[in-house]
């Protein structure tokens, strides 16, 4: 196939994950979390995004390595 | 409502990152667009899990994300019938029974299949009505998005239209169908990422699922229904007057479950095109089956937020936000954006808004890519300029992409100035799609169905739908656009009931007329010509290289069983 879609998905979600996690750290204890029931939802969502993005990247790289050995 | 959502720099950054990725994918794919097949059919090279996700994502546009949330609030869990009775069985049927003919016939589009199976007339009718509908559908998507951005973020309406058109045009022009499909997959994951935090916070606020159920009792009794009418999907379907949807089980199963859903999922080129882009017959057949698995659980993301919203806000003053307008009337349409603005803080809010934007844009892109294929192959190559080089048709496909987007923009402005256009379009859709399924069913499974009969059947089915709509009304004070424009012989308890019955009539008329005329006008194609197009004349496919657990039949049974379990669980 021409472009392994897991690559752009992995990249996008990792980048978004890092941005949101960092933002979550900066805004720790801020008033903006009043609406989200005092849960720092940015931190949690960010971490989940990084995990998902990383997983996609690993899958893409694995597939690439497999293609090369062929 | 403007000003309720505080959008920060971080939220805009997330949107910008997403847009850069979308355009990047388009630019990257550009170098592979060498022939019209690459551009309009993705060169039939995409694995099943990608086409499967694209299959459901292309439908996960404005209507589904915003509409299902609104219906969840208005009708409760019965809205899930659109998934568990509607979409799932139809998707299984498409994958197991119909896909072999679409993919195996080498037809490049749904109208082209009609030409191979029946005749030129039937194809022309379908191609033209489909092309017009896609343009309007994409225009309405554009309109809905611009309207939302205007309300939520205070963006200028014209700016939103122009921006979304340019982005969609850029990536579909560069990367064709492949680009559209890739972005649909991206959008699928974005919707999950943006909506899971929303559902999580909403559920927590309401005290979990049991909390939601308890609060919905008050919502139901206040409107004169049994306490658990919002949380039981089948218990109150015995009569149209005991459930908030106003439909009864027969209309639901036959009208929605059979005619409307099968008509939509099995004959609409917009979705079928995704499966046809798969890299093999087995991948094409697995496309709708793989799509059906996440589709089953979509109600958690799109319907549940609506139920939570109405549960929390029906008695005012509890949760700090309300669905009620200033005059006390509940406005269901903005349920999802209101929830996003209420629960999500800057950061995740950007993710949620990006997900909404992505769903609108890929809804548009899906229509544009289906339009350019039907235009290029079924109208231009067939009637305007046949016999040109492939380069010529590739160029035409690209021009059609630009042309389709520009006309969609026009349609968006028509929608903006004409209040009822959404209703009107849905009506036309029901008129055209419901009888079409009868044509396909007979075409694929009865070799005697003839070309002339199919055309007459399709026409009378469409007319029959219009007549039925003209003779009935949902409620006595409904406006003209809702029906009753000929004379009034019956009133339905709800619009939905009327809709389901219109579809049922259209299907039955098309079916009966096609059968009758097939005996008068004998089949115009020989058995040899129909090989690969009709069930009884096509050799059974043996998929020897696929393990038993990923055979279409096995997958189909698993998916159906899961849907039955869901229905029973929320009975």
- Given the C-alpha coordinates, what overall shape of chain B results? globular
Q: What gyration radius of chain A follows from the Cα positions, in whole Å?
A: 16 Å
Helical run tally of chain B: 20
Q: CA-to-CA gap between the ends of chain B? A: 37 Å
Helix content of chain A: over 70%
- Greatest interface and its residue counts? A-B, 30 and 36 residues
Characterize the quaternary organization of these chains. heterodimer
Radius of gyration of chain B: 23 Å
**Strand order within the widest beta sheet of chain B:** 1-2
What is the chain-wise order of helices and strands of chain B? Answer: HHHHHHHHHHHHHHHHHHEEHH
Low-confidence stretches of chain A: none
**Major sheet size, sense and barrel closure of chain B:** 2 strands, parallel
Explained architecture:
With 70 residues, chain A is an all-alpha fold. Chain A has one domain. Chain A is built from two helices and no strands. By secondary structure, chain B is mainly α. Chain B has a single domain, classed as Up-down Bundle (Sodium/glucose cotransporter), CATH 1.20.1730.10. Chain B is 71% helix and 1% strand. The interface between A and B is medium-sized, with 30 and 36 residues.
List the helices and strands and how they pair.
The complex is a heterodimer of chains A (70) and B (571).
Chain A: H1 6-26, H2 41-69
Chain B: H1 9-30, H2 36-41, H3 48-57, H4 62-75, H5 81-104, H6 110-117, H7 120-153, H8 157-206, H9 208-222, H10 249-267, H11 269-276, H12 281-302, H13 304-313, H14 335-343, H15 348-384, H16 390-417, H17 421-445, H18 451-471, E1 472-474, E2 490-492, H19 495-520, H20 552-569
Parallel strand pairs in B: 1-2
